[in-house]
């Protein structure tokens, strides 16, 4: 009789057609599912469609609304090595504006790290921003190893990577401390880091607003930085952070914007000259 009662109890609690009793908690994987880097967004014909959307719509719109003024774009005009593009973050308009500030060739080869919890919680939104801005999910909280791995794979595959090392938008326009992932990525991939500073986008699209408002915006692009011999990841991250802050202060020091010889070499377009 005891065995019969046990069998009846099991039958009453078991969900037939499944593999767990109905009274158990919902099934969950023992390890989190690996995040995707959305390779489809970087393949044809999506690349050509995004090029048309950006060149024909997003870039002209951003420039018209903001009267965009850009300094230092020559650092990226003919760069061959993939680079980490690092900027402060004050608005959802930052990504559209920064992409518009890039030379055409650099923009086409740039992937944007987008907050996984904000943009990819809703699948349709994740697909839209991946198509339009060439984003991939960038976890702000936890999962750092997986994020660093997917980021390094993109850099090693020849893509530039635009990230916001503060981890979130600033509420008052002041820069927060950079997270150390920039230094780790630069160390792992040996990629140069290009500091950028955007000013004015908090008026274009402040936190909580869902549409653009006309306002002037300035973007400054600094001299590419590389890790020095024996420089640790955290120390390099601090140096990148200082460079972005200096750009925001309007510094014209050679360590921030390069000396006149470096700027001349960057603007000489050697690839085009040799083609002639």
Which secondary structure elements does this structure contain, and how are they paired or packed?
Layout: H1 2-13, H2 46-66, E1 69-71, H3 74-77, E2 84-87, H4 93-101, H5 104-108, E3 110-115, H6 116-119, H7 123-133, E4 135-138, H8 144-156, E5 160-163, H9 181-189, E6 193-199, H10 201-204, E7 218-221, H11 233-249, H12 254-257, H13 260-267, H14 270-275
Parallel strand pairs: 1-7, 2-5, 2-6, 3-4, 3-5
Antiparallel strand pairs: 6-7
Helix pairs in contact: 2-4, 8-9, 9-11
Please give a quick description of this structure.
This protein is α/β, with parallel strands linked by helices. It has helices at 2-13, 46-66, 74-77, 93-101, 104-108, 116-119, 123-133, 144-156, 181-189, 201-204, 233-249, 254-257, 260-267, 270-275, and strands at 69-71, 84-87, 110-115, 135-138, 160-163, 193-199, 218-221. Helix 2 crosses helix 4 (93-101) and helix 9 (181-189) packs across helix 11 (233-249).
Note down, in words, how this protein is organized.
The chain is an alpha/beta fold. It is 46% helix and 12% strand. It has 14 helices and seven strands. A seven-stranded mixed sheet has the order 1-7-6-2-5-3-4, with helices on both faces. Helix 8 packs across helix 9. About 3% of the residues have low confidence.
Identify the CATH class. Answer: Alpha Beta
- The tally of domains stands at 1
Portion in beta strands = 5-15%
Mean pLDDT: 82
| Whole-angstrom Rg | 23 Å
Low-confidence stretches: 28-35
Count of individual beta strands? 7
Search tags:
7 strands, 276 residues, Glycerol-3-phosphate (1)-acyltransferase, alpha/beta
């Amino acid at each position: 009789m005891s065995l019969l009662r046990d069998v009846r109890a099991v039958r009453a609690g078991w969900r037939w057609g499944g593999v767990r009793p109905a009274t158990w908690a919902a099934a969950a994987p023992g390890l989190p599912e690996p995040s995707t880097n959305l390779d489809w967004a970087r393949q044809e014909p999506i690349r050509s469609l995004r090029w048309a959307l950006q060149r024909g719509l997003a870039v002209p719109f951003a420039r018209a609304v903001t009267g965009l003024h850009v300094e230092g774009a020559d650092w990226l005009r003919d760069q061959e090595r993939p680079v980490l593009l690092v900027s402060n973050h004050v608005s959802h308009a930052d990504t559209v504006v920064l992409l518009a500030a890039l030379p055409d060739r650099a923009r086409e080869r740039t992937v944007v790290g987008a907050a996984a919890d904000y943009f990819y919680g809703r699948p349709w939104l994740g697909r839209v921003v991946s198509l339009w801005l060439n984003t991939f999910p960038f976890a702000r909280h936890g999962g750092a190893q997986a994020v660093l791995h997917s980021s390094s794979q993109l850099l090693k595959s020849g893509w530039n990577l635009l990230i916001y090392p503060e981890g979130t938008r600033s509420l008052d326009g002041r820069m927060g401390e950079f997270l150390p992932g920039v230094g780790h990525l630069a160390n792992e991939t040996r990629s140069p880091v290009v500091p950028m500073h955007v000013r004015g986008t908090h008026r274009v699209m402040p936190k909580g607003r869902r549409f653009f408002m006309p306002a002037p915006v300035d973007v400054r692009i600094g001299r590419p930085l590389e890790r020095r011999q024996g420089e640790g990841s955290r120390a390099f991250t601090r140096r990148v952070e200082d460079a972005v802050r200096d750009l925001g202060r309007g510094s014209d020091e050679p360590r921030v914007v390069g000396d006149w010889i470096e700027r001349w070499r960057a603007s000489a377009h050697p690839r085009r000259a040799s083609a002639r």
